[in-house]
Amino acid sequence: MRFKTVVASLAMVLGFSGCDSSTNISKNIIKQEEKQMLNEIYDSKIRPDGMLYKQDNRTEVDKIILNYISIGQHRQDIIKRLNSMDIQTKKNEHGIVRFGELRQGIGLAIILNVELEFNGNDKLKSIKSQYFYQE
Protein backbone atom coordinates (compact mmCIF):
# COMPACT_ATOMS: atom_id res chain seq x y z
CA MET A 1 0.00 0.00 0.00
CA ARG A 2 2.84 2.36 0.89
CA PHE A 3 4.43 1.64 -2.50
CA LYS A 4 1.25 2.80 -4.31
CA THR A 5 1.23 6.05 -2.30
CA VAL A 6 4.86 6.78 -3.20
CA VAL A 7 4.23 6.03 -6.88
CA ALA A 8 1.10 8.22 -6.90
CA SER A 9 2.97 11.08 -5.19
CA LEU A 10 5.85 10.79 -7.64
CA ALA A 11 3.44 10.82 -10.59
CA MET A 12 1.77 13.97 -9.26
CA VAL A 13 5.11 15.75 -8.79
CA LEU A 14 6.28 14.79 -12.27
CA GLY A 15 2.93 15.76 -13.74
CA PHE A 16 2.96 19.21 -12.14
CA SER A 17 6.58 19.88 -13.03
CA GLY A 18 5.79 18.86 -16.60
CA CYS A 19 2.93 21.36 -16.71
CA ASP A 20 5.14 24.10 -15.35
CA SER A 21 7.80 23.34 -17.93
CA SER A 22 5.37 23.40 -20.86
CA THR A 23 3.85 26.63 -19.52
CA ASN A 24 7.28 28.23 -19.46
CA ILE A 25 7.97 27.01 -22.99
CA SER A 26 4.68 28.45 -24.26
CA LYS A 27 5.38 31.78 -22.48
CA ASN A 28 8.80 31.94 -24.18
CA ILE A 29 7.25 31.19 -27.57
CA ILE A 30 4.65 33.94 -27.04
CA LYS A 31 7.36 36.45 -26.07
CA GLN A 32 9.42 35.55 -29.15
CA GLU A 33 6.36 35.93 -31.36
CA GLU A 34 5.44 39.29 -29.84
CA LYS A 35 8.89 40.73 -30.42
CA GLN A 36 8.46 39.98 -34.10
CA MET A 37 6.01 42.79 -34.93
CA LEU A 38 8.60 45.51 -35.52
CA ASN A 39 11.02 43.04 -37.09
CA GLU A 40 8.27 41.79 -39.38
CA ILE A 41 7.62 45.35 -40.59
CA TYR A 42 11.30 46.15 -41.11
CA ASP A 43 12.07 42.76 -42.69
CA SER A 44 9.05 42.88 -45.01
CA LYS A 45 9.27 43.75 -48.66
CA ILE A 46 7.37 46.97 -47.95
CA ARG A 47 9.48 49.77 -49.32
CA PRO A 48 9.75 52.84 -47.07
CA ASP A 49 8.66 56.15 -48.59
CA GLY A 50 11.21 58.88 -49.22
CA MET A 51 11.18 61.69 -46.67
CA LEU A 52 9.69 64.19 -49.15
CA TYR A 53 7.05 61.71 -50.35
CA LYS A 54 5.97 60.07 -47.11
CA GLN A 55 2.34 59.02 -47.04
CA ASP A 56 0.09 59.73 -44.09
CA ASN A 57 -1.10 56.14 -43.98
CA ARG A 58 0.65 52.93 -45.03
CA THR A 59 -2.05 50.26 -45.15
CA GLU A 60 0.54 47.51 -45.79
CA VAL A 61 2.16 48.33 -42.43
CA ASP A 62 -1.25 48.55 -40.74
CA LYS A 63 -2.03 45.00 -41.89
CA ILE A 64 1.08 43.67 -40.14
CA ILE A 65 0.23 45.57 -36.95
CA LEU A 66 -3.29 44.08 -37.07
CA ASN A 67 -1.70 40.64 -36.78
CA TYR A 68 -0.69 41.63 -33.23
CA ILE A 69 -3.52 43.91 -32.07
CA SER A 70 -7.11 44.22 -33.28
CA ILE A 71 -9.75 46.80 -34.04
CA GLY A 72 -12.13 46.91 -31.07
CA GLN A 73 -9.45 45.87 -28.57
CA HIS A 74 -9.33 47.91 -25.33
CA ARG A 75 -6.68 50.64 -24.98
CA GLN A 76 -5.16 49.22 -21.76
CA ASP A 77 -4.82 45.76 -23.33
CA ILE A 78 -3.02 47.26 -26.32
CA ILE A 79 -0.69 49.33 -24.14
CA LYS A 80 0.14 46.22 -22.08
CA ARG A 81 0.78 44.29 -25.29
CA LEU A 82 3.05 47.02 -26.66
CA ASN A 83 4.93 47.20 -23.35
CA SER A 84 5.44 43.43 -23.44
CA MET A 85 7.10 43.96 -26.84
CA ASP A 86 9.39 46.62 -25.34
CA ILE A 87 7.52 49.32 -27.27
CA GLN A 88 6.89 52.47 -25.28
CA THR A 89 3.99 54.74 -26.20
CA LYS A 90 4.83 58.37 -26.86
CA LYS A 91 1.50 60.05 -26.14
CA ASN A 92 -1.65 58.85 -24.51
CA GLU A 93 -4.23 61.61 -24.70
CA HIS A 94 -7.50 62.48 -26.43
CA GLY A 95 -8.07 58.92 -27.63
CA ILE A 96 -4.66 58.70 -29.37
CA VAL A 97 -1.71 56.41 -28.59
CA ARG A 98 1.49 56.85 -30.58
CA PHE A 99 4.61 54.75 -30.83
CA GLY A 100 7.51 54.59 -33.19
CA GLU A 101 10.87 53.14 -34.01
CA LEU A 102 13.99 54.41 -35.72
CA ARG A 103 16.49 51.98 -37.20
CA GLN A 104 19.84 53.17 -38.45
CA GLY A 105 21.29 51.78 -41.63
CA ILE A 106 24.33 52.67 -43.67
CA GLY A 107 23.75 56.25 -44.76
CA LEU A 108 20.06 56.36 -43.83
CA ALA A 109 17.53 55.87 -41.08
CA ILE A 110 14.25 54.02 -41.49
CA ILE A 111 11.46 55.49 -39.39
CA LEU A 112 8.14 53.97 -38.36
CA ASN A 113 5.46 56.15 -36.74
CA VAL A 114 2.16 54.59 -35.69
CA GLU A 115 -0.94 56.36 -34.40
CA LEU A 116 -3.72 54.35 -32.76
CA GLU A 117 -7.07 56.10 -32.45
CA PHE A 118 -9.62 54.97 -29.86
CA ASN A 119 -13.34 55.65 -29.56
CA GLY A 120 -15.15 56.95 -26.47
CA ASN A 121 -15.22 53.44 -24.98
CA ASP A 122 -11.40 53.14 -25.24
CA LYS A 123 -11.69 50.57 -28.03
CA LEU A 124 -9.30 50.72 -31.00
CA LYS A 125 -11.00 52.53 -33.87
CA SER A 126 -8.23 52.97 -36.44
CA ILE A 127 -4.52 52.70 -37.17
CA LYS A 128 -2.47 55.18 -39.17
CA SER A 129 1.17 54.53 -39.90
CA GLN A 130 4.05 56.27 -41.62
CA TYR A 131 7.03 54.27 -42.84
CA PHE A 132 9.82 56.26 -44.47
CA TYR A 133 13.55 56.72 -44.74
CA GLN A 134 15.69 59.74 -44.16
CA GLU A 135 19.23 60.20 -45.41
Strand order of the largest sheet: 1-5-4-3-2
- Report the total helices: 4
Largest sheet: 5 strands, mixed
Secondary structure: helix percent: 40-55%
State the end-to-end distance. Answer: 78 Å
Rg, nearest Å: 22 Å
Q: Which SSEs are present, and which pair or pack?
A:
Elements (H helix, E strand, L loop, with lengths): L1 H33 L1 H8 L5 E2 L8 H7 L9 H10 L6 E3 L2 E9 L4 E10 L5 E11 L1
Parallel strand pairs: 1-5
Antiparallel strand pairs: 2-3, 3-4, 4-5
Commentary on this structure:
The protein is α+β, with helices and mostly antiparallel strands and 135 residues long. Helix content is 43%, strand content 26%. It has four helices and five strands; from the N terminus they run ααβααββββ.
How would you concisely characterize the structure shown here?
The chain is an alpha+beta fold and 135 residues long.
Features:
5 strands, alpha+beta, disordered N terminus, 135 residues
